[in-house]
Amino acid sequence: MDEASESNQQRRTFLGILLGGVGVILAGVFTWPIFRFLAPRDLGGAGAQVRVGKSEIKVGGAHFFSFQGRPAVLLQPSAGDYVALSAVCTHLGCIVKWVDGKGEFLCPCHGGRFSAEGKVLGGPPPKALETYTVTLDANDLVVG
Q: What is the pLDDT of residues 42-70, one digit of tens each?
């Protein structure tokens, strides 16, 4: 009978190790996408500057583009005046939308509102949108 109980103990140990390994693999499968979503991307300096044609942005309009791997927006609030901002809401990271009629940004997730300069007008965002430098180069605007 001693051999039978030793054999049962070995089976239990083997099954415990097997189930533990499967648990670790499943935990990895489910947490890896979450980690990749939350972890910042290392772009290695890619996209340090973005060129946008002046003709693409009308007065009072907005042009959305990708800057350093993140959504950004270029505005022309008045003729010849350009503003570049991050299009990521400072509350929970949703992408803001430009409302032409009001001349402001609206976060569709929780109703945060931002001015054309990126300042918080209302809602839960704790701080203003990040601003980027804009320089004029012939008929292009250079962001970054």
A: 554 555 788 888 878 888 888 898 888 88
> Greatest CA separation found in the chain?
93
Report whether 144 contacts 67 (CB < 8 A): yes
Residue 16's pLDDT is 92
The whole-angstrom separation of Cα 92 and Cα 37 is: 13
Closest by Cα among 134, 143, 130, 120 to 66: 143
Phi, psi of 75, deg, nearest 5: -120, 155
Mean pLDDT of the chain: 85
Tokens of 74: 């270029």
Structure tokens, 14: 């083997």
